[in-house]
Structure formats: C-alpha cells, structure tokens
Design goal:
It is a single chain. With 368 residues, this protein is an alpha+beta fold. It has 12 helices and 18 strands. A hairpin with a 4-residue loop joins strand 4 and strand 5.
Length: 368
C-alpha cells in the first residue's frame, strides 16, 4: 500500500512545476515525481511528503512529418501520441505494455516492448529533453545549458532515472514510418534447446525483422519473427525456413497483432512478480528451464539478451534468489508481501558514480 503524501499536485505548466519543486527543496521536503502511476510499484515507497505529477503537461507540442521528429510534453499518453503520428503513417517506435503510460513515465523508467529489437530503446529514440531540477532550475539538452549540468547528455542520463535526478517535462523524439502490413513467422517447440537454437539462428539471419521475440509457458515455447512493409510475406517465409531448419514446428500468421500484444502483456503482472533479466543469448535454454522449475512464464528479446519472467503464483523470493545467483536481475512488478530490493547490490565503483551524479543534480536529496 502506498504511503500518503502531505501534498499532491499536477502542475499545468513547466513554470508551475518548477515553483513546486523549488518550494519543496527550500523547505527540506522530499518529492516523488510520477506520470500516470502505472509503474509506481517498481520502486520502494520512500514516504515522500510531496507528490508532483506531470500529467498536467499533456500537449503534443510539435509534429514534423517531413523530418520524422516530434516534441511532446511529458504527460502526453503514449497511445494518444501514436494516434497523432499515425495520421501521417508514422510512429514512435516505443511499444511497452500499458495504454495509459505517459511518454515521460516511459522515458523515466526506460520501459520498452518488442520494437526495441529493431529500433533500439528509449536512449536511441529521444534526441532532446527539457527537465526541471530539484531546485526549480530549468535545463534543456541540445541548447542553452546551465553550469551544473554542462557536459551531461540529459536525454541519456535521465532515461531510466526514475525521477530521482529531476522532472522530465518535454522530450524531442525521432519517428519512423509505420509499416502498412505485417506478418509473423512462429516456431513452436517443447524443448528449451530448440527454442534457443531457433532464436539464435534468426538473430544471425540476414533478415530485416520488425521484432524477434521468444516465449515460454506451461512446458511449451515459441520463437516469433515479425516482418513488415508493403509485402512482408516473403520475408516471413524466409524466417519460417530458418526456423524449419532449426527443427521447430512452424506457421505464418498474417493477422499477428494479437501475438505481439500478448508478448507485451506478459511483461506485467497485476498481483504477481515480474523479474527483468539481462543474460547472454546462449543462456536462453537454461533461463527457460529456470522459469519452468518455478512455474513462471518467460518472454524476451533474445538478440538483445533481455528477458521478463512472470510468476503469478508460487515462491517469488526463491525465483529472484536463483536468478540473481547467475544473471543481472531487476524486480519490476511484485506482490505486496514481497520485501526485496529492486536490484542486487551494486559494485562499489558503480554505486560511487551514481551517488556523485545524484549529488550533482540533487545535492539535498529532495527527489526520491
């Protein structure tokens, strides 16, 4: 259950937000920043006395179809932004789960979906950013910067910062053409080694893939390769041949939106555990076996070495303990009863670097 704050606000302008942070900073109060609140459970509640939401900043400030760029206020719902871009047959290549998520929240948490395999993550798509620091100072990357943030790439630094360095108020993003048609080659197997073999074969195949994902649940798994463009079927058929040669049973799905929506949904659990694992591509078979032993499901981007294990019932602490014994593991969604750190202890050098960055941007520790 979330702790109650003394004050909550959703400023309608950047100036109002800056005043809110400045007032809290001067009063020695702690502040929690939030977007739509879809991922508040990813971090421990630090009991902030003030909560400031960016949902009042909800304008699509610019859309430049000719050069495939846009500028968005942080509180714009990602789904709404995609609707605007779709009018020009364009898209922002971020597709994390959660229709209500704001662009600021997606960037601050570094969230992603299957499109990351083709287009990269938040740090690859955000080309500029406007932020408000804890003391109310407004800074913008790519333009006039202030002394205490000079030399930092704000867009890359604030992506994944969870609001602990400052409030993201505006992002400039790179867009891509939307694919008019898609088709997906699917390989099926009940052997983790076959799943790993199929994923590895497609990772090294000379194919242009919109997405390359794996899945596993209840003793059976799949490898999914999505193709796009005006005529995606030949590419999908080529991917199918790769999976055939790897020994998987295969099919092609032209009506494939449901497949990929299911991949995104398995990255979340309303009441259970989701652990995000970074591992080698060659670790996939053993990671699948670990999931199966604990009764968990798995989805992932094998070419990137990113996997999400979801456990709705069972012993989440035991699963996390085993994963952290071998892989870099972050706990995202979690049951209320589970008391466990989001990440394992950092190496001393990494911890020192993060502490110094925090001290530079938020010396009083206002943002939690």
């Amino acid at each position: 259950m979330e702790a109650q704050t003394d004050r909550a606000s959703a400023p309608a302008t950047v100036e109002e937000l800056a005043q809110e942070l400045r007032r809290a900073d001067e009063a020695g109060q702690t502040v929690r920043l939030r977007g739509a609140g879809t991922k508040l459970g990813w971090v421990a509640d630090a009991g902030a006395s003030v909560e400031v939401a960016t949902t009042g900043l909800d304008e699509v400030l610019e859309h430049n179809p000719g050069d495939l760029t846009a500028v968005l206020s942080a509180g714009v719902r990602l789904a709404r932004a995609q609707e605007v871009f779709a009018e020009e047959d364009q898209m922002l290549a971020l597709d994390p789960p959660g229709a209500e998520a704001t662009i600021g929240g997606v960037v601050a948490t570094g969230d992603s979906g299957p499109l990351r395999s083709r287009y990269g993550g938040v740090r690859d798509l955000v080309v500029g950013m406007r932020v408000v620091l804890a003391d109310g100072t407004v800074a913008k990357s790519g333009g006039q910067v202030i002394k205490n943030v000079a030399g930092y790439d704000l867009a890359k630094l604030f992506a994944g910062s969870f609001g602990t360095l400052g409030a993201i108020t505006e992002v400039s993003v790179r867009l891509h053409p939307a694919s008019p048609q898609t088709a997906t080659a699917v390989g099926h197997a009940d052997d983790p080694d076959l799943i790993g073999r199929g994923a590895q074969a497609l990772s090294h195949a000379r194919l242009e893939q919109l997405g390359l994902d794996v899945r596993w649940a209840h003793g059976r798994g799949g490898v999914l390769s999505r193709s796009g463009g005006a005529t995606p079927l030949p590419q999908a058929e080529a991917a199918q041949r790769v999976l055939d040669e790897a020994g998987l049973g295969t099919e092609i799905r032209e009506d494939d939106n449901g497949l990929w929506e299911a991949q995104r949904e398995r990255q979340r659990s309303p009441a259970g555990l989701v652990a995000k694992v970074s591992a080698l591509q060659t670790d996939l078979p053993e990671l699948v076996r670990t999931a199966e032993r604990h009764g968990a499901s798995l989805v992932g981007r094998p070419a990137l070495g990113l996997f999400w294990l979801r456990l709705d019932e069972g012993s989440p602490g035991e699963l996390v303990s085993e994963l952290r014994g071998r892989y870099v593991t972050a706990v995202l969604d979690r049951p209320e009863r589970l008391e466990i750190e989001r990440e394992a202890a950092l190496e001393p050098g990494v911890e020192l670097l993060m502490r110094r960055v925090k001290e530079r941007f938020d010396p009083r520790g206002t943002l939690v």
